[in-house]
Structures are given as C-alpha cells and as structure tokens.
Amino acid sequence: MGSIVLDLQQEVISQDCDIVNALRKAHLIAVKLGLEEFDKWICNELNGYQSKDLCPNYRKIHSTLMALNPHYGWVQAVITSPELENEICEHSVKQSVSEIIALVNSNGDTLGISCSGTEIDCFNKIFDNPLPTQFVYHISKASVTDIVEKVKNTLLEWTLKLEKEGILGENMAFNEKEKEQAKSIPQTINNYYGSTNVVNGTASNSPIVAGNNNTVSITKEDLCNELSKIADEIKNTNEISTDDIETALELLSDIRDKIDCDKKPSIIKSGLVGLRDFLITAGGGLTANLLATLITRL
Fold this sequence. Notes:
Blueprint: H1 4-13, H2 19-33, H3 36-47, E1 60-62, E2 64-69, E3 73-76, H4 82-89, E4 90-92, H5 97-104, E5 110-114, H6 117-126, E6 135-140, H7 141-164, H8 176-182, E7 199-200, H9 220-236, H10 242-260, H11 265-282, H12 285-295
Helix pairs in contact: 1-2, 1-7, 2-3, 2-7, 5-7, 9-10, 9-12, 10-11, 11-12
C-alpha cells in the first residue's frame, strides 16, 4: 500500500471525487495523528453542525425571502433596509455534506427553507399585512454547491501541508516522527479554505437582468400585460386606502404614457421604482413585491 495522505490528495482533485468518502479518509488520518481540533471539523462536515454558531464562514449564505401572493404565487418580499435584509436573509447551513449533495441533486434551480411560525408572524408584522401571509426562504443551488467545493479545497490544502512536512502515512500508518511533526500543522480550518464571501442566492422569481439602460429583456407587450395585472392588484387590494389606490393608479398611468412614448428603459424603470416605493410607504408591501420582480427585468 502507498501513502494514505497522497491517496486522499488524489481523491480530492479527482473530477469524480466522492467527498463523503474523502472526509472519512481524512477522519482516519486526523485520528491517527492526534489532530483533535481538525477532526472536529471533519466530523461536523460528515454529521452536520449542532448549531449555526459552529458553522464556518463558507457555510453562511444569502437567501431571498419570498411571500405567497394569492393571485401570483411566490413573489420576492421587498426589504428596504439593507441591515434588516442581512439579518433576515443570511443563513448558516448546518446540514451534513451528504445532505447538501442530495439537495443539490434535487430538481429545480433553487432550494426552499421553511420559515418557523414565529418568523412568519414577525414578517407579517414587519410588512403590515392585513391578512396572514406565508413566507419561505429561497437559496440558489450554486451557493450550496460552493460549500462542497470549499470542503474539497480545505482537504486539499491540508494534505499539501502534511506532504510538505513529510507526513505521508505509508501503509496507512504514521511513525512517531510524523505524529510529532503533525503538531506543527495548523488545526484551524480558516488556514485552509481561505477568505470567502457570503454568496447571494438568486430566487427563481427574480430573473437575472439581461438588459441595460437602453435595451430590455422583456417585450413591450409583455410589460403592458404585467402592468395590467399590477393595476388589477392595486384596485383590489385591502392593504392601502382609497386615496392611495387612486394615487398609485395615477403613477401607473404615467408609466404607461412613458411606454407609449417609447421612453428609455431607464426612465420607465425609474417610474416603476417610484411606484414601488410609494406602495411600500402606503403599506402595500405585497403589491410592491410584484413591481420588484418586474423591475429586475428592465
């Protein structure tokens, strides 16, 4: 048999890497070398983290809060405060690597995280909803997949440090010199995966912008159809007063005039943003959500 450290190194860089098996092999190495702190991280990745406070930074991801509109289904909830959005939408993924892989292999481009009853009650108060509304967090599969890649990077860098110190584990055994040398190897995992940023997830109802200030990713006909739906929503809403409904419809009429005059998308977008902000101020949070989704397409 050869070196278990080099075997692990080869497995991690393989295109068909079985990350769960690689972690088990890493667990074996860490135990044999007496690297208790590093082995805690390995076991957490294999079995899942007990609390979000124990999760490394690369397991912190950004979600999109979605609200269930009775007419249009799930729409993005508009959170005007960046600080509040970070507080609400940042999540620490506690699931084991095997669970994460199963989620990644499921259907769809996004994953849903259920909100607790307490969270739903809180959100209904924040958005001042006249009727109870369901909420759910959406996260992109790309952000979850990145967690697995960070684990691979950590294992690879760890094996490179072991190799550099001459710690190879020939025939799956380590001599006393190797065990002594292992004490000089950092056991804090942020020495291995490097800096990481919170990954922003993209919800399925929030299309990626495919235009610029002069071109749009939505046709004029589709835009007008969407505005007609929003007009019906404004007319039938119980969220805002009759006076605010009239003002909102006037703002919407002004936007339609700009569309008829073939104004630049940036001007139309500015009008939509103004209408959205007015609705939020007036208390029409759910109707404003529809505009937020439409704005992303300009």
